[in-house]
Amino acid sequence: MSQLITGIHHVTAIAGDAQKNVDFYAGILGVRLVKKTVNFDAPDVYHFYYGDEAGHPGSILTFFPYGDITGGRHGKGMLNTTTFSVPLSSFSYWQERLKRFGIATKEPQERFDNELFIYFEDPDGLGLELVFNDRDERPGFTYGPIPLEHAIRGFHNVEIWEEGYERTAGLLTEQLDHQLIAEKSGRFRFAATDKPGNYIDILCTPDSLKGLSGNGTVHHIAFATPDAASQLEVRQRISKRMLNPTPVLDRNYFTSIYFREPGGVLFEVATAGPGFAVDEEMAHLGEGLKLPEQFEPHREALIKALPPITLHLDQYK
């Protein structure tokens, strides 16, 4: 049987101030703003997509910057940490860069005996890590504010906290083509493809509080599937597990289905295409405000409602 799930597609989180979000991710972290559009369910709210130079699945972190809403709380039943993959040789560079911009970090740590990482948070409190490794062959952003040899390559892994790992593990291995590839100290690592950018870590945290949605928390994680046909096959699998997936929804740059896994995290399965160059040339990704067709007649009103944002990348070099 062919593999229907190939890895992580994207992670979507909730943010506050739109300009601070752009400054942090496109500026300090130096990932590319590949698409500036709006929330399908709340078109007066931006939807930002950040990723590698071409916006490949496995590199895309997206945000709904809602403005001044209540901050969320990390806890069980949530994806609490999203990690980026960077070269092992870039450790000193990133330590100095985060310090330069006043980003507080925890002390460097190791995981699974050989995985060096630094934990920090974005302006809204979203949990992030840089994982330093020499296994990632993906290219960096060639003309971003970070020198190419130190640039973020995409995701490394995500970290989900659960009461127990068994039911979510069953879903990952039986319906979503993942395998258990590592286990240590209550951390269970799964992957559909054993490469940086595709690792799902489940932590058993029965004593932690239940997470609460709000600024600084993850809304959902999306898994990648090759095309519409494979997406429908996955949907059949999920339906048989009685997890009530949504119908297929058109998100312009991919199509999606959504469902909640047994621990409460919202999962999505998204197609690899058509991709972010469908309405902008690759060299100009993220430059214009792109609206779903149903909102195009309201462009003028939406531009007035959305806060203006500016890319100030030169000051982050």
TrEMBL record:
Keywords: Dioxygenase, Oxidoreductase. It comes from the Bacteria. The keyword Oxidoreductase applies. The keyword Oxidoreductase applies. Residues 7-133, 154-272 form the VOC domain. One of its GO terms (molecular function) is dioxygenase activity. This is Ring-cleaving dioxygenase. It comes from Chitinophaga agrisoli.
